Amino acid sequence: MPRSGRRVEKSSFAPQYLVFLALLKREREERGLSQRELGRRLGRHHNFVSSCEMGDRTLNFVEVRAWILGLGLDWVEFTRKVDQALAAQSAPPNGSSIPPGNTPPETASTDKADS
After folding, report:
1. Which of 15, 24, 5, 6 minimizes the C-alpha distance to 82?
2. Which residue ranges make up each domain of the chain?
3. Which of 49, 59, 81, 100 would you label with 108, given CA atoms 20 to 30 Å apart?
4. Average pLDDT, stretch 58-80?
5. What is the DSSP string of 41-76?
6. What topology is assigned to 14-90 in CATH?
7. 94 vs 69: which has the higher pLDDT
8. Which has more pLDDT, 22 or 89?
9. Residues 6+ apart with CB under 8 A from 69
10. In angstroms, rounded to a whole number, what is the distance separating the alpha carbons of residues 36 and 42?
């Protein structure tokens, strides 16, 4: 993190990743686990947990799986929660079910001239 205290946006998915991190932290807190206890369960120092929760360190897939198991969560249920939170965050105001930037390519016109 730069000395100015501002976070550097490392990815175009940063807002979605922050939603994911907030869910990880909330799940830990709801279970009454400290960062120190989760770190112990993960075999890592509590600073690792803190750095990940603040977004200073990105978790890879294997680390996320270990984190979820360390919290005693069901993987499928947690991913459903993440999907719901992301859908709520990025729901387009026009009611479309397709998030912005994910519109399918235009299909070829069926009004082609006969060859």
Report:
1. 24
2. 14-90
3. 100
4. 96
5. HHTS-HHHHHHHHTTSS---HHHHHHHHHHTT--HH
6. 434 Repressor (Amino-terminal Domain) (1.10.260)
7. 69
8. 22
9. 75
10. 10
Decide if 46 contacts 34 (C-beta within 8 A).
Answer: yes
Residue located via tokens 């112990």: 40
Contact 85, 17 (CB under 8 A): no
- Taking the C-alpha atoms of residue 75 and residue 5, their distance in angstroms, rounded to an integer, is 34
Q: Return the half-sphere exposure (C-beta side, CA atoms, 13 A cut-off) of residue 79.
A: 6
Tokens describing residue 10: 């490392």
6-25 pLDDT, tens digit per residue, is 555 555 558 889 999 999 99
Cα→Cα distances 62→72, 82, 83, Å: 15, 17, 19
* Residue 37 to residue 61: CA distance in whole angstroms: 21
